[in-house]
Amino acid sequence: MKGKGIPYVLGFPSYGYGPFERMGIHTTLPLLSGFLLICVVECVAGYGLWNGDKGSAVLSLAIVPVELLFYYGFALPFGPPVLVLRLILLFLSWSSLN
What we know:
5 helices, elongated
């Protein structure tokens, strides 16, 4: 039985069809789980930032390379602009963190 394909959101595939697949790395459960883990870590960092924790800012900066890898590999169009905005806001608020 063949499926109907992956869902599209705002004209973009919800996952797959990015550079990962062109390189032969198929979108699998472990790959999607890794991306989910990075998203959860970013939420934890965001919670810490909400409370003014500078360690959370460092954590947020530390996972940027991994986020960029996923943004590129999954061809996520909104990831990089949101990341740039997040980094600008992080650096602007750096002096107010504990």
